[in-house]
Amino acid sequence: MTQSTTRPMIVAGVMSGTSADGINVAFVRIKAARTPRFNKRTRSNSEPSDLHHPPIELLAHTEYPYPSQVRCAILDAMNAERASVANLARLNVLLGELYANAVLKSQRRFRRVPDLIGCHGQTIYNQGDAQPFLGKKITTTWQTGEGAIIAARVGVPVVSDFRFADMANGGKGAPLVPYLDYRLFRHAKIGRIVQNIGGIANLTAIAAGADASDVFAFDTGPGNMVIDQVVETLIGKPFDRGGKIAASGHVIEHIVDSLLKRDFFRERPPKTAGREEFGREFVREFLRQRQGASKPDIIATATALTARSIADAVRRFVIKSTHHTSRNSFQEMLVSGGGVKNATLISMLSEALAPLGIQLRLTDEFGLPSQAKEAAAFALLAYETWHRRPSNVPSATGAKRPAILGKISYA
Amino acid sequence: MTQSTTRPMIVAGVMSGTSADGINVAFVRIKAARTPRFNKRTRSNSEPSDLHHPPIELLAHTEYPYPSQVRCAILDAMNAERASVANLARLNVLLGELYANAVLKSQRRFRRVPDLIGCHGQTIYNQGDAQPFLGKKITTTWQTGEGAIIAARVGVPVVSDFRFADMANGGKGAPLVPYLDYRLFRHAKIGRIVQNIGGIANLTAIAAGADASDVFAFDTGPGNMVIDQVVETLIGKPFDRGGKIAASGHVIEHIVDSLLKRDFFRERPPKTAGREEFGREFVREFLRQRQGASKPDIIATATALTARSIADAVRRFVIKSTHHTSRNSFQEMLVSGGGVKNATLISMLSEALAPLGIQLRLTDEFGLPSQAKEAAAFALLAYETWHRRPSNVPSATGAKRPAILGKISYA
After folding, report:
1. Which residues 152-191 of B are in CB contact (within 8 Å) with A?
2. If you average pLDDT over every residue of chain B, what do you get?
3. Pick from B2, B82, B97: which is nearest to A136 by CB?
4. Cα(B316)–Cα(B334) distance, integer angstroms
5. Inter-chain contact B408–A407, Cβ cutoff 8 Å?
6. What is the ipTM of this complex?
7. Are strands B116-119 and B9-15 parallel, antiparallel or unpaired?
8. Which residues of chain B have pLDDT under 50?
9. Residues 343-402, chain A, touching B (beta carbon < 8 A)
10. Segment A80-91 mean pLDDT
11. Which among A388, A375, A392 is positioned nearest to A168, based on CA atoms?
12. What is the model's pTM?
């Protein structure tokens, strides 16, 4: 088999998130035909298959928690100002061994053997904005977990270290998942917004018949982060299960309206949000506006903030930015992430989207559960790299051009 | 061009040594035909070309010192018990930029554009022996200098991070240069020992008509390390220029004889030496045996120790270990490294080899100056990896099997 052949492959994707909980493994089958085109002049007439025959099929997925001492070592490396150079070097190899074991165990469990592995690694440092260092302006990132170890143990090639190639081309090295959204959800006739609602909410906008270079993505603002903090502060629970408390309250509209006038929401994409924007400080200010409202009203208002900020972002930056083209605008929003479990949030979002002519659907109906999504994304990115094709989405990362992501270690 | 084609390529090798002085760049042209065989059963009848048509041709080489603040940052990372995680992440990118600049400058100077780059990177940590870490036995190493940055800047693929694949297969990840020795100096009819005399002296033994798997390599003991320290202690100069002082003295034979009975010299290869074996402590003991001898006599004796220990290693471990085969034994020693400049050392070595039927030659006459050798080696290793061929020498590194070294970053 040469790399230029594009036969279907089974690819294992291995992901470890910044929470450093453990290792997600997804085995996916990737079919050959649908190569995205980055160059509009060479655009093919063939359209990607519809949702009943997606080019990426999730075969199985699972997760393995890190041993607690490994988790501690990772958190130490992430949070300590200074760390032992020797231990960082050892952690790289140790994680390589753990990732290899995770794939080998999954192989036995799924009774499938992958042809290729894409391993994201464990991020222990990330700096997406250029900062001066010894006379140069540097952006950098660090995913540890040695690809060569995985390749040797499992006996198949490994693609690792995905983010640098995008950074080297002027991008932030993130987000990389929009490429999976594009490949999974692009539709010839339907414009789709893929909306993830985690702590922070982010969207990927895929116009009908889009090229990868047409796709764009950005953070819309709070996802569950503000709701959860408000619920915890007011009633001491970690979250509003099913959105029941919010359902029993009334949204205080003028608070939502005034919050949506904040800089973050007005700022044009690309933009990213985090605890700096919607953490404790934001919640403290938010609660100051309470003025005797009931707890359910406040929780309903926090919930409405997430729903309305998403719809607002769509209205301001998604529909608007593409209405000058001849293409259809956006008809569907596909929602994933923990926020999906909050029925009140989803119903608010659905209502807010209705005037825009956008129908809400859940990504789960497309066969890719939220927990498997990131691991599946790195399987797909590895597949593209193996075939020497770019897979960053420059409009999402800010890169100046498409880049072939990651490094290949042969077995 | 696919990776399975083996047309001639111009490959840039980029090396930074542990002294952290700077960046060595070598451009080499590598011809296609002579693929080494690791599997004896499939050994080809075609023999590598002779020394007038070596498969690897050095086109040009040069070096660039690190800016002093970069050198400081590297030495800090190497020597500090703990280091800033952020700065380690930045150093990786910064060195990638510097390596890219070094190749781009060389391109303009040499008026050649490489097809591929092999970059060793800067070692900041190395642990070739397994040690327990969080419940696993780990060997590890760390070469920094981001390959993806170099690939993006120069616009050609880069192979980096060579040592892990060998380690993952049970080796120490070093030495990797014996593969170059094998490819350059292997001869169908002549058994050759490639002897490098740096601070430590090491040899690569390549029997006539050897396969890569027949090659073996080990440290023979002191190179210039003991001589230089003795000269510095006795007369305050950094080294014995041209071996003139040694030439004016007489070797105290019984001291050499007794030193050669030490454990290190009797130990069977593979073995490695360093300051632990032949540093200050050794020299202090050596000088204690002086008993009124003149300074030139002592320096001559130190010089004889290097020469005799090399010849002894050849007699004990090289000739012996292969005389049971039907092959010719070894007829030539090709010497390189700083020790070559010590005429007394070379003449002593030549004399010590004569009874073994081994003739001494200098590698410089083969067109590869010592300063370019390591950089050229990583160009060759990159070329092999690009063609998905292994290039470790298991008998030199201790690996259980051949391994394809390094990771490929596409431009």
Report:
1. 152-153, 160-161, 164-165, 167-169
2. 90
3. B97
4. 18
5. yes
6. 0.85
7. parallel
8. 1-5, 34-53, 323, 326-328
9. 385, 388
10. 93
11. A392
12. 0.86
